[in-house]
């Protein structure tokens, strides 16, 4: 029972990281500075990967 509630936390947290990566990708189109675009791109990719890993961990724990 304890393990089930822990795995239920992975999905919202993972989706949260995906949600945080979206504004960063959108900000790339509105930023004018090249360095700012690069920073937003790197941060967005990192958030996206973290969200993906968290969701995969949650799926592994369910099985």
Question: What's this model, at a glance?
Answer:
This protein is mostly helical and about 60 residues long.
Q: What report would you give on this structure?
A:
The chain has one domain (2-62). The protein is mostly helical and 63 residues long. Helices cover 92% and strands 0% of the residues. It has 2 helices and no strands. The mean pLDDT is 81. It starts with a helix and ends with a helix. Helix 1 (2-30) runs antiparallel to helix 2. The longest helix has 29 residues, at 2-30.
Can you give keywords for this protein?
63 residues, mainly alpha, 2 helices, elongated
Write the layout of secondary structure elements.
Elements: H1 2-30, H2 34-62
Helix pairs in contact: 1-2
Rg estimate, integer Å: 15 Å
What's the rounded overall pLDDT mean? 81
Helix content: over 70%
Low-confidence stretches: none
- Ends apart, CA distance between termini: 14 Å
Order of helices and strands: HH
Q: How many strand elements?
A: 0
Largest sheet: none
Proportion of beta-strand residues = under 5%
Instruction: Tell me the count of domains.
Output: 1
Class by helix and strand content?
mainly alpha
The number of helical runs is 2
What is the overall silhouette?
elongated
